[in-house]
């Protein structure tokens, strides 16, 4: 019989978050788990994160319960590991509700798992044992003496609407309170069970006088098929709606001549083929945007009440396509990285996004976002701003066009890249946006300007 070692599983690196509530326990005492199996789920107002098991073993005790708050380094579970000789490092928490990009496709800037709704549970449920003692928790509702199962974003909505969360019955998963519950209590949203309650909404939009979502008996007109949206789609919807309604979007369109840049890109890829580095057009867009943001710092800012926060760091988010939807990984301190390093980080983050292995720190802290649909097509679009950022650059497929050349007196074939800059009109006016894009066009036409 092999020797066993008891391993203390702690909360791993969860980015800038602390005092995060436990919203779901995924194991019980006596359960056998494999390495990377999820143990419990944490929820902040930015993301929902599964904490994975660092090794295979048997759960011997659980130190937390649903509703407890934990931070990085908090002990959550004791795991009996067979044949273990050392304590392995706990893998980073895996985000299961990730941020789609601020683009015409999808974006998420503030994730709230309350969008993942289920019928309310109205009977007390048996919770897993905590330190060997079974506990009973009623997740269907709360009273003055029991904890309130609601995310920080739902609590914020309640404060805005003046709603006391105690005593409310939650319609979310495991009886958690969701925005519709708070709105219903405030008299500003359909009651739980109403057909319109399933429509993604956001409490911060209350009071805008929006018409209720239409309720239609689709089956009345013919056969239909109902397909569940992905978690990313469910969570992104209220944030997209909030950003679109709350931010006065204006989009400025232009084209950049990237004929020489594309030739250089192909040359670099041929030279770096043996090193496994692949230069995409987004690589150069990141560098060009950093150079332009330096000249126009307002576009790298955020609006905070009556103040404009001018950020002196350059963290560039980019759209990454995944099976569950689009997410926005962030290249931190892009101004201090060369093209080779940016290309490598783009490849690494894109791969982790497709595998669903992005952590919270991979997606937070962005100051400006690039949403590229160049591999698909299109001539222009209006990307939705990734709040609290104030601008986002949309890019579509480059096309060869005849462009008049004054020196030769002829039309010459040039590769033109369509650019669509959406900006917050509360912060940026049209003239500033036009100057920003004009500068970006010049940088892309001759990337040597980045060195100036």
Number of strands: 22
Q: Radius of gyration, Cα only, in angstroms? A: 25 Å
Structural class designation: alpha+beta
Principal-axes shape call? globular
> What is the CA–CA distance across the termini?
68 Å
Biggest sheet descriptor: 7 strands, mixed
> Mean of the pLDDT scores?
79
* Helix share bin: 10-25%
What do you see in this structure?
The longest helix is centred in the middle third of the chain and has 16 residues, at 231-246. The termini are far apart. This protein is α+β, with helices and mostly antiparallel strands. The radius of gyration is 25 Å and the shape is globular. Helices cover 21% and strands 26% of the residues. Strands 12, 15, 18, 19, 20, 21 and 22 form a seven-stranded mixed sheet that branches.
Provide a short characterization of the protein structure.
The protein is an alpha+beta fold and 452 residues long.
Write the layout of secondary structure elements.
Elements: E1 4-10, E2 20-25, E3 32-33, E4 38-43, E5 48-52, E6 57-62, E7 69-70, E8 75-82, E9 94-97, E10 125-130, E11 133-137, H1 152-161, H2 179-186, H3 231-246, E12 249-257, H4 259-271, H5 281-295, E13 301-304, E14 307-310, E15 316-318, E16 320-322, E17 325-327, E18 330-331, H6 339-354, E19 368-372, E20 391-395, E21 399-405, E22 410-424, H7 430-445
Parallel strand pairs: 15-19, 19-20
Antiparallel strand pairs: 1-8, 2-4, 2-7, 3-6, 4-5, 5-9, 6-8, 10-11, 12-22, 13-14, 15-18, 16-17, 20-22, 21-22
Helix pairs in contact: 1-2, 5-6, 5-7
Key features of this structure:
single chain, 452 residues, 5-stranded antiparallel beta sheet, 22 strands, 26% strand
């Amino acid at each position: 019989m092999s020797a066993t070692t008891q391993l203390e599983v702690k909360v791993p690196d969860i980015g800038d978050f602390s005092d995060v509530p436990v919203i779901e326990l995924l194991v019980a005492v006596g359960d056998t788990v494999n390495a990377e199996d999820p143990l419990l789920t944490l929820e902040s107002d930015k993301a929902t994160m599964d904490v994975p098991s660092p090794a295979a073993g048997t759960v011997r005790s659980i130190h937390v319960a649903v509703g407890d708050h934990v931070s990085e380094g908090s002990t959550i579970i004791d795991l009996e590991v067979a044949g273990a000789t050392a304590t392995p490092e706990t893998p980073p928490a895996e985000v299961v509700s990730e941020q789609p990009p601020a683009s015409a496709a999808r974006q998420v800037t503030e994730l709230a798992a309350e969008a993942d709704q289920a019928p309310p549970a109205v009977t007390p449920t048996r919770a897993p044992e905590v330190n060997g003692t079974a506990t009973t928790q009623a997740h269907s509702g709360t009273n003055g003496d029991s904890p309130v199962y609601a995310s920080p974003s739902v609590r914020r909505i309640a404060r805005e609407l003046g709603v006391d969360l105690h005593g409310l019955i939650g319609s979310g998963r495991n009886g958690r309170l969701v925005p519709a519950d708070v709105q219903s209590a405030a008299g500003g949203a359909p009651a739980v069970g109403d057909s319109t309650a399933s429509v993604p909404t956001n409490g911060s939009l209350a009071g805008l006088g929006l018409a209720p979502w239409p309720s239609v008996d689709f089956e009345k007109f013919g056969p239909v098929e109902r397909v569940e949206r992905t978690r990313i789609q469910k969570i992104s919807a209220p944030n997209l709606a909030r950003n679109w309604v709350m931010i006065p979007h204006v989009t400025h369109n232009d084209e950049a001549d990237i004929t020489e840049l594309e030739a250089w890109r192909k040359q670099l890829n041929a030279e770096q083929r043996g090193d496994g580095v692949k230069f995409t057009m987004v690589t150069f867009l990141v560098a060009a945007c950093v150079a332009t943001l330096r000249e126009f710092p307002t576009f790298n800012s955020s609006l905070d009440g009556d103040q404009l926060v001018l950020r002196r760091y350059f963290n560039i988010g980019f759209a990454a396509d995944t099976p569950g939807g689009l997410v926005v990984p962030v290249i931190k301190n892009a101004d201090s990285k060369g093209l080779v390093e940016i290309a490598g980080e783009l490849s690494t983050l894109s791969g982790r996004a497709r595998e669903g292995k992005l952590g919270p720190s991979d997606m937070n802290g962005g100051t400006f976002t690039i949403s590229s649909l160049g591999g698909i097509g299109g001539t222009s679009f209006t990307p939705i701003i990734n709040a609290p950022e104030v601008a986002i650059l949309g890019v579509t497929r480059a096309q060869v066009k005849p462009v008049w050349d004054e020196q030769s007196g002829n039309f010459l074939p040039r590769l033109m890249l369509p650019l669509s800059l959406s900006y917050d009109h509360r912060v940026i006016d049209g003239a500033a946006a036009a100057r920003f894009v004009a500068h970006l066009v010049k940088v892309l036409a001759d990337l040597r300007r980045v060195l100036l």
